[in-house]
Amino acid sequence: MRHGQDSGTLREAAAMTTVVALDRKLDTQAVGGLCEMLKSHRGADLTLDVSATHQIGALSLQTLMVAASSYSKCGHPLLLTGMSDDLARQFELFGVDPSTLTVTKRDE
Q: Number of structural domains, the chain?
C-alpha cells in the first residue's frame, strides 16, 4: 500500500486527505495489513485508491465495510476511488452495493 496526500474538501480547505493505493489483490492474506492501515488513519479523512485492485475477497470487503461505518461515526469519510466495473461486480457478487461505500469510478 502506497501513501500520499491529496487536497481536502472545499469546506475545510486546510484539511488534508490521506490517499492510500491498495494492492492488486485483497485476499485473506491482505486483511491484516489492511486492518492495520485503516486503524492507523482512523480519525482523519482517508481515500483508498482501488484503481489497481482487481480482486477482493470476502474478509477484505467486510473489513472495508466495517471501516467505512467506523470512519463515518467519527465524522470522517472513507472514500474509494478509481473503482473498475469488474471490481464493482465483485462487490455485487457478495451482495454489496458499491454505492453503500463512498465510491468514485475510474476515469475511462
A: 1
The residue segments making up the domain with residue 39 are 18-105
Report yes or no: 41 and 20 within 8 Å, Cβ to Cβ.
yes
- Please report whether residue 6 resides in a domain: no
What pLDDT tens digit does each residue of the chain (108 aa) get? 555 544 333 334 335 789 999 999 999 999 999 999 999 999 899 999 999 999 999 999 999 999 998 988 888 889 999 999 999 999 999 999 988 887 555 554
| Per-residue cell: 58 | 470476502
Quote the pTM value. 0.79
Residue 53 maps to which CATH number? 3.30.750.24
Tell me the DSSP string of 52-96. T--EE-HHHHHHHHHHHHHHHHTT--EEEEEE-HHHHHHHHHTT-
* Residue 65: all three cell numbers together: 465495510
- Residue located via cell numbers 490521506: 18
DSSP label of 31: H
